[in-house]
Write a structure and sequence with these properties.
The structure is a single chain. The chain is low in regular secondary structure. The protein has a domain at 27-96. Helix content is 14%, strand content 10%. It is built from two helices and two strands. Strands 1-2 form a two-stranded antiparallel ribbon. Bound molecules: zinc ion (2 copies). Residues 43, 45, 48, 50, 55, 95 line the site of one zinc ion (ZN).
């Protein structure tokens, strides 16, 4: 007695992050940076409107990657600094330059 055996060979293609050189902070790092920043923009660039004081714009966690009030982004301080917490700064959408926008303050 021969039992029919159908052998299916199914291949699973695992989509990896092949060739991705784009840097990205882990959620852990972003959260730590967020807490360090105290839910405020950490920008200290002198070329910005806030000059010698940190921007300090109040941000909203849920508005990550958004533009406008409370919008912010995790930003690399230096290009070759890696994805460590020390190289992560929290910037409001204004300072990170996601998109230039003019909103009367
Ligand atoms: Zn700012
Ligand atoms: Zn700024």
């Amino acid at each position: 007695m021969i039992l029919p055996s159908s052998l299916k060979s199914e291949k699973y293609w695992v989509a990896g992050y092949a060739g991705s050189s784009e840097m990205a902070f882990s959620e852990d790092v972003v959260k730590q940076a967020w807490e360090r920043a105290g839910e405020q923009c950490e920008c200290r660039k002198r070329t910005h409107r806030h000059f010698y004081t940190p921007c300090g714009k109040v941000l909203v966690w849920e508005n990550r990657g958004k533009v406008g009030r409370g919008g912010w982004e995790a930003h690399h301080i230096t290009i070759d600094g890696g994805d460590a917490l020390s190289n992560c700064e929290i910037l409001c959408s204004n300072c990170s330059g996601i998109r230039p926008f003019s909103t009367p303050v």
